[in-house]
Design goal:
This protein is mainly alpha-helical and 169 residues long. The chain is 57% helix and 8% strand.
């Protein structure tokens, strides 16, 4: 994961365009490994349900709506996805019969994604195992102070992407 050629033996601090310092490598390496391991483990847990982390997020976002329907642009924002990535995922979910897409009737612009009954059952079956995995891998290993620190650090890093996250308001 960490390229040893980026280590500079004589210096622990580098310019903005130079290699990472040892401390920066250590921090980045641990964080990058966490991202990879966490994503892979959560995907593996959802795979037996025919889902991955992104498809689960799409289904769960729709399931949270009173009518199980969202404009595609709103769904993209909720799942932090580009319009193109979301469109490809919704097409795959349509193929499975879990989501239906239709034109927005209110203004004739844009499309709506609607969670079908089968999609709702799929996300409901996957949720208990997913929640247990999130607790086991992220929440339970931390005490209350650690969870607060993780929340604060996550929000601090998210803000640089200029997205609105209700969890961080």
């Amino acid at each position: 994961m960490i390229d040893p050629s980026t280590t500079v033996p004589d210096s622990d601090a580098m310019s903005e365009t130079g290699a990472l310092s040892r401390d920066e490598q250590r921090t980045w390496g641990a964080f990058a490994a966490l991202l990879d391991l966490m994503s892979s483990a959560l995907d593996t847990g959802l795979h037996e349900r025919g889902l991955n982390l992104f498809s689960y997020a799409v289904l769960a976002a729709l399931a949270d709506q009173p009518d199980r329907t969202l404009r595609m642009s709103e769904l993209a924002a909720l799942t932090h996805a580009s319009a193109s990535r979301l469109s490809h995922m919704v097409r795959r979910l349509e193929d499975k019969g879990w989501v239906e897409r239709s034109p927005a009737q209110s203004d004739g612009r844009g499309n709506l994604a609607h969670l079908t009954d089968e999609g709702l059952q799929t996300v409901r079956r996957a949720t208990p195992d997913h929640v247990a995995a999130v607790r086991a891998m992220v929440l339970d290993p931390l005490d209350e102070a650690g969870r607060e620190q993780l929340h604060a650090l996550s929000c601090r890093l998210v803000r640089q992407f200029e997205v609105s996250l209700p969890e961080c308001d």
